[in-house]
Structure formats: C-alpha cells, structure tokens
Amino acid sequence: MSEQTFLDSLARRSAKRDRHGPEPSWIAARRQAGAARFEALGFPTRRDEAWKYTDVRAIANGEFALAEDADFSQTVAATLTLPIDAYRLTFVDGVYAPALSQLEGLPQGVQLVPLSQALADNHEAVGGPLGRLTGVEFSPFSALNTAFMEEGAVLRLAPGCVVDKPLVVQFLSRSGAQPVMCHPRLLVEAGARSQATLIEHHIGEEDAANFTNLVAELILERGAILDHYKLQEAPLGDLHVASIHAEQARDSRYTSYNLNLGGGLVRNDLISDLNGQGAVANFYGLFYGQGRQHIDNHTVANHNAPLTFSNENYKGILDDRARGVFNGRVVVKRDSQKIEGFQSNANLLLSDRAEIDAKPELEIYADDVKCSHGTTTGQLDEEAIFALRTRGIDQQTARGLLTLAFAGEVLDQVKLDAIAERVELAVAGKLPERFNLAGLVEAAAALDEQ
Amino acid sequence: MLEVKDLHVTVEGQTILKGLSLTIKAGEVHAIMGPNGAGKSTLSAVIAGKDGYEVTQGSITFQGQDVLEMEIEERAQAGLLLGFQYPVEIPGVKNIYLLKAALNAQRAARGQEEVPAPEFMKLVKDKLGEMKMDASFLQRAVNEGFSGGEKKRNEILQMLVLQPKLAMLDEIDSGLDIDAMKVVADGVNSLRAEDRGILLVTHYQRLLDYIVPDRVHVLVDGRIAKSGDAELAKQLESRGYDWVVEETAA
C-alpha cells in the first residue's frame, strides 16, 4: 500500500522532530488532521473527476526521502538562478539555503523570510492565515503537505508598500542517489494597496527526479496588486503538484503567469476568490510539453462579489507523447451581478501522439453577467503560412515561426521582459529541429539589444 | 526573364485567364492595367503559387525554369517575389524574424552563407531609412495593426532587403495617400536595375506618374488586349478602359 510509505515517512519525521521539543499545539493538531485526512482519502485515482486525466501513480508508488541539508554548488546554482536583479529566497530540495539567498536591502515594509524563521519569530502570527485558504480538505496532496509542512516562504507586505524589485522564491532540485520530496508552503500577505512581483521558480539538476508538493496561499488586501510568476523549469524527471489559492479583497489585482516548460508530471490548481467589488484576477498560462511530459492546469475564478473581473488566456504546445490538461472554471455566485469572466484556451499539437484534454466550465448563478469561454486545438493559419512561403521561407520554418508566435501571444502579456525572452528562447530551443529556428531567435534578440 | 505563354487559369470552375502571354526582360518595368475582374490579380497569384488557381493550359518560365513545377518558397528563393495587394497580418511573428528567415532561406538556396548579424542589421536599417520606417517596426508583428500605408511600405521593405530578380507588385498603390505613394514609388524606383524585372499590376494610371513603365499592357477578359509604352497608360487615364474593351470586341 503506497500511502503507507508516506505515513511511515511521516512517523519517522515526527519522531525526529519531537527530539527537539514539542511544536506549538496548533501545528501538531494540523499535522494530525492532515495525516488523518490523507490516510482517509489516499492518493487520487483516475476515477476522481478532478484527476480524470492525470495519473499520479508515479508519485504514489515512489519512495521519497526528506532532504537533510541544502548543500549545493554555488557555481551550479549561479547557472540555474534567474539572471535578474531581485531579492531571492532559495530552497534546495525544500531546505532553506541561506548561502544561496539574497535578501539585503529589502525595503521597509517588506518581510520575506523562510517559514521556519517566521514560525520561530512568532508562530501565532503564522497560524492565523496559514491553512485558511487551502486546508487539509482541499485535496489529498494539500492534506499531505499539511502533515509534512516545515519550510517555505512567508512574504508580508505592509499597507501601501511597493516593492522595487521582483521577489524570487527559488526551488532547486538536486539529483542524487535517492529521490527526495518536499512540501513547501508559500504564504503571502499583501497589505492594502501594496504592490509586488513574486517569482516562484522551479529548476534543478538535469538528472533530478524529486517530488515537490507545494501549497501557496496568497492574501490580497484591499487594493493590493500582486504579479505572481510561476516559472516551471524543473528537470523532466521531477514530479510537481501545487495548489495556489488567492483571496482577493476589494479592488485588488492578482495576475498569475504560469509558464510551464519543465517537470515530468505537473499538476497545478490555481484558484482565485474574488471577494470584493473591483477585484481583478488574470490567469495567463503557457505550457510546452515534450517527451512524455504531463502538464495539468486546473484554474478556478470564484466570483463571490458583484463587479469582479476575471480574464484567462492559456496556451499549450505539445510535442512527442506529451499530454496536457486544461480545466478552467468560472463560477459566478448568486447576486454577483455585473461581473465579467473571460476565458480562452488554445492548444497546438506538434505530434500525432501528443494529447490535450481541455475543458472550460462556466457555472453562473446570477443573470447580469458577461462571460465567455472557448477552447481550440489546432491549426496554424494557412494564409499566414502561404504569406511566409512567398518570402522564400520553407513550410517547416513557417510553421515554426507561427508556433513561436502562438506562444508569443501569452508572452506578450508578460511584464518582465527578461522572463518573456527567456521563455521565448526556451520554446524556440525546444521546437522540433524540422522547424529550423535554431539561431534565429538568438540572433533577433541580439539585434534587439543593439 | 519571365515568359508567360498562352496561360489559361480557372478559379472555382470559372475561367479567369484565357490565353495570356507576356514576356518580361531584365531591366524592364511592365505595368498591367485593366478594368476590375479582368484577371489582373490572378496572374500574380498564379505566379506566386497561391492555392485554388488551376492552370489548365499554357506555361510560365522564369530564367528557364518551369515556375509551375516549383514550390512556393522555391519561387521566392529563385528571386520571384510578390508584393500583396492585401498583405496578411501575421500576429506574433516579428518583422525581424521574417526578414532574417527569408534572407537566410534565399541565401541557403543559392549556396551562400548566412549574413553576419551586424551586416544584416546595417542592411535592414538602411532599407528602413529608405522606406521612412522607424526601427521599432522590426520588433512589431508582421503587418499586425499596421495602417494600409504601413503594410504597403512593409511589402516594399521586404523587396529591398530580399532584392528579387523579378518584383511583382499587386495594386501596391491601392489605399495609399499621396505621401505614402511617393515613398512606395521611390522604393520601387530604387529597385529598378539592369538585371531586374518589375511587374506592376494596377487599376489606376496615377502610380505610373511616379514609376514610369517601359511597357503597358491592358488586360481585358483574361487576355492582353493591347500593349504599348507609357503613353498608353495616359490614354487610359483620359479615356477609360471602354474603348479598349470595344476594340477587342470588334
């Protein structure tokens, strides 16, 4: 029984932790609740509607240790770290790595600390918000995360605080003799009218094959603005499950850029609760799958108040035997009048064996709303291909250019140029060789800088 | 350079070109004029290789090669380039990508190496200057959100960079105000060269005040009904097309 492996690991971890003295009672209670919930539910199977297209046996049948240290070569880390001017918190297989972090010069009103430190400083201040949005009920994975939780990032923004540089929370995955797992938490409390860019970056050593089970809770007070990048560049052997839950007060704006290039198995649940008038949630997503990658994104916009707005644009490109899942839900509560919810999803399959399962869902219980949704899987514009060919560009290169352009439609929304360029280059590099794009994008980027 | 012989073309079962013959030599500028529906755009579309045009009779050869046997991109690589009446918007594909990919493809087809980046950039910037276009055009998607005039300039820009052996310009003057037309005409005139042919397809004589052709052909009902020099275009301007149509019918 595979769940038992995880429960055993949990018991060993608890015993070890207890030697350092008792934890605050609320944490112990939640761990217990998490473990009990996980034990009762077990891992989801394809029979569960929310997991119909995603098989998690690679996780369930895995044997993952818990990392004991954050040792990592500075040189290798430097090659993996995003080359942008930012504040940075780094975790190696889930363990905080102060030597790879850079928090100097954080402006007043910004607190970015590892969860362990936030708990040590004032555990009660953490206990209130933590787990409020994503409790153990959400999924077997959130239950498991709660049972194991030890580390992660806590970001607190004082009211009115505008952070001058992006805040990067970097997760490095190591290759090693035994796969490891981590259950990080991300807790963001964005005070009224505060403004920040958070980059959640997953990357690691090529041969790594670890399991990350992340829970993120993002609380946006009135008028807060948060740009949240999730840049998934984990090694292709990595397994990744994440629940990202935003709660939005009046006039707040949450923008999610979910840019998924890496990871062997990735499942993201992205949820926004639009609880106050004027709240806006933007979900932008781009995923590129190759080999046997499996990328599953479930998004939910809960319009719990009138005059709330959600806008979603997800694009997927799948090659080889990669598989993508897109499930986008817009829920409009009774009396949530004058809301607007737009959703669009488009996918390109570059191989006969690639597969996408796309399902847009609208649940509307109010009558004065503007909602639209659509999903296409498909075809490149033949007229554009002809136009490119009349310039001497062969059919395959023309298709490559248009495929890159397809990704570009999402990247156009990305505000940080460094990220948009990085992803565009990565996509150009991943596109099949037959598209002959090697060098073209680099050359163009170089020209751009002149 | 280009030889069209007895060309018959049908589109969706309807015969549009009914025995068109035309010879363009290097160094010459030809203008094809004619009333709407005469088949002017069909000729350039067939030469460029657009889908949906069936050649039922006749031949097109370009520098001794059978054009109808060539792939669309091979025609362009050989130096046969069409400027569209309605240039297609290609969202997301930056102009710089198109220009670089197109130039590389042409050079590769001719066994030449890629142009080094600095040289390419200088070339493109010079040509942008000629077309009075800002460098920011390069980072914009091909024709996306361009005004009519910008689209036409962009077509000519591509010609200037790719230096075709035969440039075909389909109604390049349509939708242009007088200033834009001068820029476009200057661009076309700068393409004039001893080793290059130019084929202008136009409804109006106006363009030919700026680009003076060597030969003018009037296309009526799928055939060339009358040919002459630049004077013929002026006659058409003052007298319209009807007299040619009547002459042909007679």
Automatic annotation (TrEMBL), chain A:
Annotated region (Disordered), positions in chain: 1-24
What domain of life?
Bacteria
Q: Which residues form the SUF system FeS cluster assembly SufBD core domain?
A: 178-406
- Span of domain SUF system FeS cluster assembly SufBD N-terminal: 25-167
Q: Which Pfam families match?
A: SUFBD_core (PF01458), SufBD_N (PF19295)
Q: Which family does it belong to?
A: Belongs to the iron-sulfur cluster assembly SufBD family.
The name this protein goes by in its record: Fe-S cluster assembly protein SufD
UniProtKB/TrEMBL annotation, chain B:
Is Nucleotide-binding included in the keywords of this UniProt record? yes
Which CDD domains does the protein's record reference? Answer: ABC_FeS_Assembly
The protein's UniProt keywords, in alphabetical order, are: ATP-binding, Nucleotide-binding
- What is the protein name given in its UniProt record? Fe-S cluster assembly ATPase SufC
* InterPro entries, alphabetized: AAA+_ATPase, ABC_transporter-like_ATP-bd, ABC_transporter-like_CS, FeS-cluster_ATPase_SufC, P-loop_NTPase
Cross-referenced NCBIfam families = sufC (TIGR01978)
Which species is this record about?
Answer: Franzmannia qiaohouensis
The stretch of residues making up the signal peptide is: none
Where is the ABC transporter domain positioned along the sequence? 2-246
Q: In terms of domain of life, where is this protein from? A: Bacteria
One Pfam family, please name it.
ABC_tran
The family this protein is said to belong to: Belongs to the ABC transporter superfamily. Ycf16 family.
Establish whether keyword Protein biosynthesis is in the entry.
no
